[in-house]
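Record type: monomer structure entry
Structure origin: computed from sequence
Chain ID: A
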Amino acid sequence: MTHPSTTVTLHARWTTRPPGLRLAGTVAPGTHAVLEDYLRSLPGRFPGRRILHLMLTAVHSLDLAGIALLLDARKRLGHQHIDLRLHLPPGLRPTHGMPNGPVYCQQGDAPGLRQLPGPGNRTAPAGGPPPAGAGGPTP
């Protein structure tokens, strides 16, 4: 986990196959403005494309505000009839952040979570009901 006072970096690279953006590093308060700029410029970078890809497979830390930026971009692009497909790293799990601080997603195991079957590598609180359509619990 990256402490909020630590310098964080986010690397971005445009891709043509598939058309979109590849991110690597950390999405945290210090990188939100850069991420938002890249997300806003996606449709102009690929005019006429109806499907764009955001590869997050090399992102090792993603805070809640960063998740909100991604979801907002998907919604905004959806209104433009563009499908933004998010490619997440396997094993990305929600975890607790610093006390009274942000909550981060990091790769690796998180206590109290279990893997659910089905697309999207979703997780749910241990002992809680699975999301609709996720099937039953895994052992």
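Annotation 1: The helical segments are 32-45, 64-79.
Annotation 2: The two ends are 28 Å apart (CA to CA).
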